[in-house]
Fold this sequence. Notes:
Distance between the termini: 37 Å
Oligomer: single chain
Helix content: under 10%
Number of helices: 1
Strand content: over 45%
Number of strands: 11
Amino acid sequence: HVQLVESGGGLVQPGGTLRLSCAASGFTRNVLCMAWFRQVPGEEREGVASIYTSGGSTHYGDSVKGRFTISKDIAKNVLYLQMDSLKPEDTAMYYCAADSCLVVASGGPYKYRGQGTQVTVS
């Protein structure tokens, strides 16, 4: 079965950087896209970035464009999110997700997601 395990969250000052990792396993053929999304308690989830696992094309949410970079190490089956120039409004629980590209493009809900890693910018 599909497993996604995030790591790399923490507390960072405004303007700082963090790199999140998501170790993935058990994928099936219908899982073609992966994504990072974030959520603050009581608010809707917000899509952060997505990547087509085969061709590598990427998409970013407007609030993180130019600051965040999504990438995937195919050999290691690890998804990354490099976060630069962090702002207090980036504070949230960050989740790794995977599903068909149609679902990922629509922003979920996702069939597969990890347990999340907390990012706090303060």
